């Protein structure tokens, strides 16, 4: 389990990193926390000749207030996302979800941007990013562009990021007046999600006015359950009414089969977890 030899650079700016990336072409790879990339290298599933470490680029780390949104640097490690007061106040769904990722060791090294760029279908983090309607900023040789989360996760381990681009930040609209919850089903604590559901809900009296739901590990990308979101609008926020509105939450998904379960089992789990997440969110 030793990676193939590679060169290593740690530039101090995004521009420097972009130059190195375009010079390196197919032989260069970005490394953030290394929590997903290093196992890939050790298994020799990839053998880049150059690793470009973003760890010394201060501008990529931290959370800032930007009016109607918070902006989280791509290199912000998971433990900082969980603890950050701005995230906890304006995007608590993200803090709650990231707190369920692995163990403290992984949360101290792994980064929000790395998890989004890696786009593992079983990763917990893309679902809240999608449910919160976040927008991701990508820097490339031609400048910066923004991509909505709904367009960013395109396939299994595949995103809208070009080979010569770097994810610089994730902009999350403030969800003032919304409650939220992340429900994750695992057999053993600190494991990857067998299924996860991120929900954010705005109530009006006893009823649900609006809901956003995104599913983890129910297909090759995180999936917005838009039909279920529409079915919840105007529904009383009680267990029976919410369960009835969520019967179709797994429609259009393509869950995997593995040692943890088959698609039917996962669809059933998604319905149960979605009910729990929506009811928790409505009560917060
Ligand atoms: P890296 O491993 O450094 O990079 C991953 C990929 O993204 C690479 O291809 C890299 O080139 C690319 N990349 C990274 N940053 C950028 C960027 N800014 N721009 C462009 N490309 C970039 N995750 C969960 O969600 N839930 C879990 O329960 C969970 N359990 C885990 C358990 C273990 C034991 C481990 C080791 C990991 C686990 N993870 C889990 C994954 C963890 O969240 C990783 O930190 C994350 O997936 C990758 O983040 P990273 O910063 O380590 O990225």
Automatic annotation (TrEMBL):
Residues 1-177 form the FAD-binding PCMH-type domain. Pfam families: CO_deh_flav_C, FAD_binding_5. The keyword Manganese does not apply. Keywords: FAD, Flavoprotein, Oxidoreductase. The keyword Transcription does not apply. Signal peptide: none annotated. This is Xanthine dehydrogenase family protein subunit M. It comes from Microlunatus ginsengisoli.
């Amino acid at each position: 389990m030793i990676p193939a030899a590679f060169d290593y650079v740690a530039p101090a700016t995004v521009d420097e990193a972009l130059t190195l990336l375009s010079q390196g072409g197919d032989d260069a790879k970005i490394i953030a926390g290394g929590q997903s990339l290093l196992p890939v290298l050790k298994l020799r599933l990839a053998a880049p000749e150059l690793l470009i470490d973003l760890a010394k680029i201060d501008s990529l780390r931290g959370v800032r207030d930007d009016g109607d949104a918070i902006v989280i640097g791509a290199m912000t490690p998971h433990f900082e996302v969980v603890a950050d007061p701005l995230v906890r106040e304006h995007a608590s769904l993200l803090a709650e979800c990231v707190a369920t990722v692995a163990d403290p060791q992984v949360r101290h090294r792994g980064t929000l941007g790395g998890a989004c760029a890696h786009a593992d279908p079983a990763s917990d983090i893309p679902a809240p990013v999608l449910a919160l309607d976040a927008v991701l900023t990508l820097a490339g040789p031609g400048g910066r562009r923004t991509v909505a989360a709904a367009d960013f996760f395109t396939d299994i381990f595949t995103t809208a990021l070009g080979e010569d681009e770097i994810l610089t930040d994730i902009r999350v609209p403030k969800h003032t007046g919304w409650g939220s919850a992340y429900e994750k089903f695992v057999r053993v604590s600190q494991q990857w999600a067998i299924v996860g559901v991120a929900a954010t809900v705005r109530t009006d009296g006893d009823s649900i006015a609006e809901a956003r739901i995104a599913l983890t590990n129910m297909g090759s990308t995180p999936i917005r359950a838009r039909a279920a979101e529409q079915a919840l609008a105007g529904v009383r926020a009680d267990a029976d009414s919410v369960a009835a509105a969520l019967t179709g939450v797994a429609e259009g998904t393509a869950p995997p089969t593995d040692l943890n379960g088959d698609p039917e089992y996962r669809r059933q789990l998604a319905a149960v977890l979605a009910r729990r997440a929506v009811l928790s969110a409505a009560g917060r």
